[in-house]
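Notebook, bench 3.
Goal today: get a predicted structure for Ribokinase from Alloyangia pacifica so we can plan the truncation constructs. The sequence was checked against the plasmid map this morning, with no discrepancies at the termini. Length recorded as 290 residues. Pasting the sequence as submitted so the record is complete.
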Amino acid sequence: MAIYNLGSINADMTYRVPHLLAPGETLATTALSRGLGGKGANMSVAAARAGAQVRHLGAVGEDGRWAIERLTEYGVDTRQISVLSEPTGHAIIMLDRKAENCILIYPGANRALSVERIEAGLSEATPDDFFVFQNETNAQREAAELASSRGLRVAYAAAPFDADAVTLVLPLLDLLVLNEIEAGQLEQATGQSIETIPVRDVVVTLGGRGCRWINTDSREIRDFSALPVTPVDTTGAGDTFTGYLLAGLDRGLPMPTSIELAQRAAAIMVTRQGTADVIPDLKEVTEHRF
């Protein structure tokens, strides 16, 4: 079993600020750090640290070979990452004293991967595998069709949220992960409640209130309470949650157990500053006391 991740790879430039910028404001930062990021890279690292075999499908520029090396160090299979002429994607992250953030993304090579390259990357995939993607790459519908045609279980993390992008792939999904605001936006765009959309499993993260799992086949709805932590940096927490969730499901764990494991990982993550480089491993997650 493996997780195939069509995902973004970014250089994350994180600036500490007294408060998030207002329109027209100029503000001096108090600190700067660079690390590996991108929703795709974060999810690949999280799933790998949770014990899954992860094969990343993505792209960087010539300036991003360090990111491939970093992903390899973290246990991700990087053989299907292309090096293209476009610059590597990057994110400018503002992080305030309350651990809230604003993020500006330059897609770069993340939006330049060919469908042929994605198809080649899925050539060894089987129905025992997962395919996950997010809204930070191109060819999402085409990739989901390729994965679905091979019998993979298809998961989508609906961020950065775009209603048109989500509705385009909804018929192909087995699992949809989104936050509470995104769930409301999807309901508005489709005219359907989140409980009735045509996806078997839907997980809605609720921030400090935990998360909700909806199985649309059985109509079961289950809420999971948040774990008590003091957040330092919320960047990458949702990606960590999704990566751990998929790793648990890939190992054959039931959905409730996988969600609880993912919540533990995300709760630890928000107590750390950074993204992919500080995602906790499975030993930390299982042994941590809250």
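The radius of gyration is 18 Å. The CA atoms of residues 4 and 282 lie 19 Å apart.
Flagging this for group meeting.
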